[in-house]
Amino acid sequence: MGKKVLVVITNHDSFPTKKEKTGLWLSELTHFIEVLDENGYQYDLVSPKGGHTPIDERSISLILMDKSTRAYYNNPEFMQRLENTLSPAKVNWEDYSAVYYTGGHGTMWDFPDNEKLQEISRKIYESGGVLSAVCHGSSALLNIRLPEGNYLIHDKQVTGFSNMEENMTLLKDQLPFLLEDELKKRGGHYKKGRIPFTSFTITDIRLITGQNPQSAGAVARELVRMLEKI
């Protein structure tokens, strides 16, 4: 495997009844990419359908967008990459040593059942690579099965956006499921931080998960640490 990281982003941009748009929570990508850039790691962007990546409107508000994320948002080359993500069919899993699933509510619709992304992730993991996810991006882990048939997250420590945090977003009634509940149903040992919306990550062998948007940088730093050992 190469030392490149495959970064997965949503294509889904809408809620069932709410007018505001969802999509990628931008800092969950930029805070992660910033760490890769600082450590000299290359990455490719892929989405379930390829092409355009919608950005959650709230994540680029003046209140929530920090200096680091704003720098990437104002970078034409970076934003062009978000318009031209790869499709899973164009990905050669052998080029990558890790996968990172970004979040945003949009992922709840197009991550869990994408069989091609599941296959890519499983092959990288089985070959000694690392899987990582943050916030709602952990929904991508729900249906990945190992060759013996067990869910990959079964009996592993895992985290993702908590029910408490979901209640605080006031979007609970718009979602197809609650991530914390589904991670537990798949046999994952779900953990969360004591204080909502503060960085919290868990590493279980070669699986790294972060609870919320504030955890993206920590997930990246742990991933870099692990990649140095591969």
In DSSP terms (H or I, runs of 4 or more residues), the helix count works out at: 8
In the sheet with the most strands, the strands line up as 2-1-3-4-8-7
Any idea what the CATH architecture is? 3-Layer(aba) Sandwich
Strand coverage percent: 5-15%
- Indicate the CATH topology: Rossmann fold
> What class do helices, strands and sheet pairing give?
alpha/beta
- Would you identify the CATH H-level superfamily? Class I glutamine amidotransferase (GATase) domain
CATH class bucket: Alpha Beta
Distance between the termini: 10 Å
Total domain count:
1
Based on CA atoms alone, the radius of gyration comes out at 16 Å
The chain-level mean pLDDT equals 97
Shape: globular
**Mind describing the biggest β-sheet?**
6 strands, mixed
- Low-confidence parts lasting 5 or more residues at pLDDT below 50? none
Number of strands: 8
Tell me the helix content. Answer: 25-40%
> H/E element string?
EHEHHEHHEEHHEEEH
Structure report:
The chain has helices at 26-38, 67-73, 76-83, 107-110, 115-126, 163-169, 179-185, 216-227, and strands at residues 4-8, 43-46, 96-101, 130-134, 157-158, 189-190, 201-204, 207-210. The mean pLDDT is 97. The protein has 230 residues and is of the alpha/beta class. The termini are close together. It has one domain (4-227): Rossmann fold (3-Layer(aba) Sandwich), CATH 3.40.50.880. Helices cover 30% and strands 14% of the residues. Helix 1 runs parallel beside helix 8. The chain has 8 helices and 8 strands, in the order βαβααβααββααβββα. The longest helix is centred in the first third of the chain and has 13 residues, at 26-38. The strands form 2 sheets. A 6-stranded mixed β-sheet has the order 2-1-3-4-8-7. It has a two-stranded parallel sheet with strand order 5-6.
